[in-house]
Design brief:
Elements: E1 13-16, E2 19-22, H1 36-39, H2 65-72, H3 78-89, H4 93-97, E3 100-101, H5 103-113, H6 120-124, E4 127-134, E5 140-150, H7 161-168, E6 175-185, E7 189-198, H8 205-213, H9 215-221, E8 227-231, H10 234-238, H11 240-247, E9 252-255, E10 258-259
Parallel strand pairs: 3-5, 7-8
Antiparallel strand pairs: 1-2, 4-5, 4-6, 6-7, 6-9, 9-10
Helix pairs in contact: 2-3
Region (Disordered): 39-59
Protein name: ADF-H domain-containing protein
Pfam family, one: Cofilin_ADF
Length: 260
């Protein structure tokens, strides 16, 4: 059996009695050992070892939000991970869909909400109902053109303002709306603003998602509004009793001058 010694190429040598020999002192000759006879018998180098992959979680495992942050930032505390999650996963309502509210929308709401003592001409110009929609680039909520009812139109071009408002709603898209409802109870006559979110079944899914995610943005601009109504079909909104229940329940006896 022949023992093979592995000698590197630039192995240090030692001089003795005028001759050079390998520092390991095992070469058969006294000449300078280059290590070629040892390197020729070496096996091919093995590829570098890769770091072990992390264990995969089973698909049935449900990870909570705090646990997900702990897995992402294991060196942080629970409070720090919760704060990071709120910053990265829970943005503000305007950033949820990237939609902002135009200033004209807020102005229309303030004009309908505040009932100032004004002349008859100014009262006629006040809006009874109005629709809001998304802009073409889907980044702003604006006032929809020619989709409004004025108080002065009632009795002249509009016989029933509520039925006229229902006709303004599109059947294949979503809308936001404000309706100034006039109703009577057993005790008195009242007027209240109603915020309506129109999301019919025939609307595209993408439109429903954008309008639903942007609803809080416009709703928070309508401060002090009491009634909110989400409608998903004509059968619900054509029935006046459904709106009467939103306004006051069984105490409402008439809506827009028409008995229930």
């Amino acid at each position: 059996m022949v023992t093979r010694w592995v000698v590197p190429q630039n192995f240090p040598v030692r001089w003795s009695r005028g001759r050079s020999h390998c520092h390991c002192r095992v070469c058969p000759s006294l000449r300078l050992c280059s290590g070629e006879h040892a390197r020729a018998s070496l096996p091919p180098p093995s590829p570098p070892s890769l770091p072990p992959s992390p264990p995969s979680l089973p698909p049935s495992l449900v990870v909570s939000r705090s646990h997900a942050c702990a897995l992402t930032f294991p060196h942080r505390s629970y409070q720090e991970n919760s704060h990071i999650y709120r910053q990265t996963r829970e943005p503000s309502e305007n950033m949820a869909s990237g939609v902002t509210v135009n200033d004209d929308v807020i102005k229309v709401f303030n004009d309908m909400k505040v009932r100032k003592s004004s002349t008859s001409d100014e009262v006629k110009k006040r809006k009874k109902a109005v629709l809001f929609c998304l802009s073409q680039d889907k980044k702003k909520i604006i006032v929809e053109e020619d989709k409004q009812i004025l108080v002065g139109d009632i009795g002249e071009t509009v016989d029933d303002p509520y039925a006229c408002f229902v006709k303004l709603l599109p059947l294949n898209d979503c809308r936001y709306g404000l309706y100034d409802a006039t109703y009577e109870t057993k005790e008195s006559k009242k007027e209240d603003l109603v915020f309506i979110f129109w999301a019919p079944e025939g609307a595209p899914l993408k439109s429903k998602m954008i309008y639903a995610s942007s609803k809080d943005a416009i709703k928070k601009k309508f401060t002090g509004i009491k009634h909110e109504w989400q409608v998903n079909g004509l059968d619900d909104i054509q029935d006046r009793s459904t709106l009467a229940e939103k306004l006051g329940g069984n105490v409402v006896v008439s809506l827009e001058g028409r008995p229930l």
